[in-house]
Amino acid sequence: MNDAIKKVDVERLYQHVLSVEGIKHPYANPEKLNETADYIKSEFQKFGLNTNEQSFEIKGIDMTFRNIEGYMGDGSKPEILVTSHYDTVRNAPGANDNGSAVAAMLETARILASEDFSGNVRFISFTLEEFDPILGQKYRDKGLELGIFNQNYKYTSYQTQKKLKKFSSKVHVRLAKGKPLLESWEKAFEEIKDDLTDTEKEYCEYIIETRSYFTRTSWIGKTGLVGSGYWVKKAVEEGKKIIGVINLETIGYTSKRKNSQFLPPLMHPILFPSYKVKARKRIGDFIAVVSDKNSKELGKLFCKNCKHEDIKLPYLWAKISLKFEKIAKWLMDLLRSDHAPFWKENIPALMITDTANFRYPYYHTEADTIDKLDFDFIKKVTQATIATVLDFSEEREK
Predict the structure, then answer these.
(1) 397 — pLDDT class (breaks 50, 70, 90)
(2) Which whole-number Å values give the CA distances from 26 to 6, 29, 30, 31, in the listed order?
(3) CA–CA separation, 260 vs 277, rounded Å?
(4) pLDDT of residue 371
(5) Can you say how many angstroms the Cα of residue 335 is from the centroid of all Cα atoms in its chain?
(6) Domains within the chain, CATH numbers bracketed
(7) How far apart are CA 141 and CA 42, in angstroms?
């Protein structure tokens, strides 16, 4: 392990992010989406890994989507997975979300492939983690039809922007209190509808109507996490044995500024195990390790390796002693990445993250660029990931 983690190369991490940075979205830039899939596959092949493309289509868009895999072993034995997603929202170049994680996944793959390591590891970069592009396009087209948006999909009125943001905020307040999805949208609309114009009302009602089919659990794999949802569904159908998942999600930003860190409601930092975290000052210079009840063992190993004398990565372990259904009711913010479909199937999985919008001011914006990233921090996350894969595989072989 000591030799392996010392091989992590910051320059390689930087070059990977430099290569994949750019809008990767089915409507806004499908060319870059496919180019990035090709890049990830070619890197796996350079490392000598077996590779696979899992292709699928979704109704309403004439495009083939691809989950890209590189793996060690013949695929017949129980595996540990290291995952990321490579798509972006339609306006962001995605250096942190999720180029940082793609880079760490690729460097982990390179180093484990070069070691005398006989474990069974599968590296997967999922597509369509972000909000369902078809539904998103429907919202934009409806807004364009009603004059809510201009041709560049910008709000045509400051007052409209302000009111619709208020609408969204009220929805999220209700969701944070454990209310059902549809009820949250409907009640939020009732609270603000008297302040809306007729076109604003029509737009909000359209959004509610399209969301009426989903619950706090059924949206996974449909309005988001489409690629990973598809992968997990197929894995369950095929009886694939997965012993654990390390899902890397937006891992590259730190801040030494006081009050730079926030957390979802009900998750005060002093409630959780941590290492070198300045919880009371809310300084955002740690990695969050998020586990559910089924993944406690894996979370414990990852945190142990963060303390390795050659790593010393500050962490906050969001050790959630609940299973999927209760997390979906009370802590939906913890389901916003590709570990969620695994949790839904009771498969041990971690989300490793810098906490995204709870710290990163450039989240889902045009400013999510490579110059914002802390590559020494990404290096430590990569080292902890490598160490955990080695540790976890060794424990399973005992």
Answers:
(1) low
(2) 38, 6, 4, 8
(3) 13
(4) 98
(5) 9
(6) 2-130+224-397 (3.40.630.10), 133-211 (no CATH)
(7) 36
